[in-house]
Amino acid sequence: MPVLIEPQAFDPQQAISDYEHKLGCQGQYGATASFVGTMRDFNNGERVHRMTLEHYPGMTERTVEQIVATAKRRWEVLEILVVHRVGDIAVGEPIVLVAVWSAHRAAAFDACRFVMEELKSNAPFWKREITDNGSRWVEKNTPD
Amino acid sequence: MAGQTITIKYFASLREKLGKSDEVLTLDGEVSISEVWQQVSRPYTADEGTVLMAINKVYANPDAPVVAGDEVAFFPPVTGG
C-alpha cells in the first residue's frame, strides 16, 4: 500500500507517472484524480519563508494507511497513492500528493477528497513556519 | 518493580512547552492515559482538551488503560497536508 513519507523534495507528476507504470493495470482505470498541496509564502497574515514538517514515525504511516484502506472500502478504486514530505520545505515545493485510480470519475474524485480531508484532520504531522517575526508552530489547519 | 515501565514521546509545540522529547515512566498499578498525562505534564497546566493521545501508535481516548511495555505519545492538534 503506497503511503510514502518523503524526506526530500519530490515531483508529484513524476510520482504519479512512475506509480502508474508500476500498477500495470492499464485499461482498467478510466479516471485518475489527484491533489497536490504546495507550500505557500503566506499564512495567517504573515509572509512565510520556509517550514519544517515534523511527524511521528510509525504512527504517521499507519494512520494514513488506515485512511487509504477506509477509502478503498468505501469507493470502488483500483489504487491510491499518498506521498507526504517531512523535514525542511521551501516555498513552492510540493508538500503532499494524493492520487486515485478508478474505473469511474465519481469514485476517483470522492476518494481523493476524502483521503486529503482525513489526512489533514488526523495524520500526525506538525508544521513549523519561519516568518519575518521568527518561527512558530501552525496551531491548526484551516477548513479549506 | 522491574519491567513495569512505559515509554512516553512528546511532539511539536508540546515537546517545546514541556521541555522534553521522551521519557520512561514506572507504572504504579493500573492507570489511564489521562492519568499519565496529569502526572507528566506537571507543573505546566496544558489544557487537556487540546492534547491528543496515542497508545502504541494508535489514537486513544483519555480513559484508555496503559500497561507496562506500552509506548504512549502526547501531541498538539495535527497540521499536515
Task: Walk me through the structure.
The complex is a heterodimer of chains A (144) and B (81). In chain A, helix 2 runs antiparallel to helix 3 (105-122). In chain A, a hairpin with a 2-residue loop joins strand 3 (42-43) and strand 4. Chain A has three helices and nine strands. Chain A starts with a strand and ends in a 7-residue tail after the last strand. In chain A, strands 3, 4, 6, 8 and 9 form a five-stranded antiparallel sheet that branches. A four-stranded mixed sheet of chain A has the order 1-5-7-2, with helices on both faces. Helix content of chain A is 32%, strand content 38%. With 144 residues, chain A is an alpha+beta fold. Chain B is α+β, with helices and mostly antiparallel strands and 81 residues long. Chain B has helices at residues 12-18, 33-40, and strands at 5-10, 22-26, 31-32, 52-55, 58-59, 65-66, 71-75. Chain B is globular. Chain B starts with a strand and ends in a 6-residue tail after the last strand. Chains A and B meet through strand 4, helix 2, helix 3 and strand 8 of A and helix 1 and strand 5 of B.
Largest sheet of chain A: 5 strands, antiparallel
What's the helix-strand series of chain A? EHEEEHEEEHEE
Write down the Rg of chain B: 12 Å
Number of helices of chain B: 2
**Strand segment tally of chain A:** 9
* Secondary-structure content class of chain A: alpha+beta
| Helix percent band of chain B | 10-25%
Fraction of residues in helix of chain A: 25-40%
The rounded Rg of chain A comes to: 16 Å
Average pLDDT of chain B: 91
Please supply descriptive tags for the structure shown above.
heterodimer, A: 144 residues, alpha+beta, 5-stranded antiparallel β-sheet, 4-stranded mixed β-sheet, 9 strands, 32% helix, elongated, B: 81 residues, 5-stranded mixed β-sheet, two-stranded antiparallel ribbon, 2 helices, globular
